[in-house]
Design brief:
- Helix 8 packs antiparallel against helix 10.
- By secondary structure, this protein is mainly alpha-helical.
- The longest helix has 22 residues.
- The N and C termini lie far apart (85 Å).
- A hairpin with a 5-residue loop joins strand 2 and strand 3.
């Protein structure tokens, strides 16, 4: 059961249920909405009650209702943004934490607030004035995603080892060839794989389905894992009977565990220093496709991006690669000797 169903006051619960059940936001996204809104309203309660902000996480929001949400002012939101940019701990369980949320985190928290007030001001009209409407989202630095080169990708696959090497090799192969999100790969069920038509059905963001083509490398990895997987099927727990990738406990392999095993194999291949991750393998798939002539609009469909602008970042990656290649040419520093020019 979603955590917010037990913990959230009704004014938050109504919004969160709408986001998940009507708009189709993923449970993970809705959980982030809840945590962001909980932090904000804890701040409002603490400042209005003159409570210390260094103990913000212990502040109760049980009394939050429409009247309080309606009374929030633009000035309080600006003060909240200042608090999270300067005083909010980044790592709440660490004594050595740094302070101040990054611009990316602040932007996400503001997006949660915007969605909340948009629902109550525009959708239900239970709140008359939207205090967020004229507040800009904090600007974030747009950085190019990290990815593995072709040689590094091959090296990663060549160094897969361990008790679950066949399963993990299949996972890495699908990541690198199909560009799936971690949650999408974790969600693969037995019935999603059509081996005859070489297709994989993927459930992406917003519960949107798409079909991904399985190339020879993927099919070979899947067929090899099929043989190994048969030994694990008898210990599958009833609630996970349709899961394709199986954990040692007989359950669907979780997002957290997939991230861990990807990191383990990257470290084994000597690629951990690149700060690569499961999501970086998605970037790797897209970059390699683009570098080898695949059209950006096609990559957009493969990755399940909603907007072409999101996919267009991979064209900038290639441009940067070309620039770096030119700079590293050993002749890059050689210039014509002008001393012999006629005076």
């Amino acid at each position: 059961m979603a955590k917010y169903l037990d913990e959230a006051p009704m004014v938050l619960k109504e919004f969160l249920v709408y986001m998940e059940s009507i708009l189709g936001r993923s449970p993970q996204t809705v959980s982030e909405y809840y945590l962001d809104l909980r932090t904000f309203f804890r701040y409002i309660v603490a400042t209005r009650s003159s409570l210390p902000l260094d103990d913000l996480d212990s502040v109760s929001i049980d009394g939050i209702d429409l009247d309080l949400a309606s009374s929030v002012t633009q000035s309080e939101i600006y003060e909240y943004l200042l608090y999270i940019s300067r005083q909010r701990p980044r790592f709440h369980n660490s004594a050595a934490t740094t302070y101040g949320n990054t611009a990316k985190t602040r932007a996400r928290k503001m997006s949660s607030l915007r969605a909340f007030y948009k629902y109550y001001c525009d959708k239900t009209r239970k709140i008359a004035v939207n205090p967020v409407v004229n507040i800009d989202i904090p600007k974030t630095r747009k950085s190019l995603p990290k990815f593995l080169s072709l040689n590094e990708s091959v090296k990663l696959l060549e160094n897969v080892d361990g008790e679950y090497a066949v399963r993990d090799y299949c996972i890495l192969t699908i990541f690198l060839n199909c560009g799936l999100r971690v949650s999408e790969l974790a969600g693969i069920s037995v019935q999603d794989i059509n081996r005859d038509d070489r297709l994989l059905r993927v459930l992406g963001k917003g519960n949107k389905e798409r079909m991904v083509y399985l190339n020879d490398a993927c099919l070979d990895a899947i067929r090899e894992y099929d043989e190994k997987r048969r030994d694990d099927v008898p210990r599958l727990k009833p609630a996970h009977k349709n899961a394709y990738f199986i954990s040692r406990n007989g359950t669907r392999l979780s997002v957290v565990r997939i991230k861990e095993l990807v990191k383990e194999h990257l470290d084994r291949a000597g690629l951990g220093q690149k700060h690569a991750s499961a999501h970086k393998l998605r970037h790797t798939a897209a970059t390699l496709m683009y570098q080898n002539g695949v059209d950006v609009r096609t990559i957009k469909e493969v990755l399940g991006h909603e907007n072409l602008d999101t996919t267009a970042i991979y064209t900038h990656i290639v441009s940067d690669n070309l620039r770096e290649a030119a700079e590293r040419n050993p002749l890059a520093a050689v210039k014509r000797d002008k001393s012999n020019d006629q005076q």
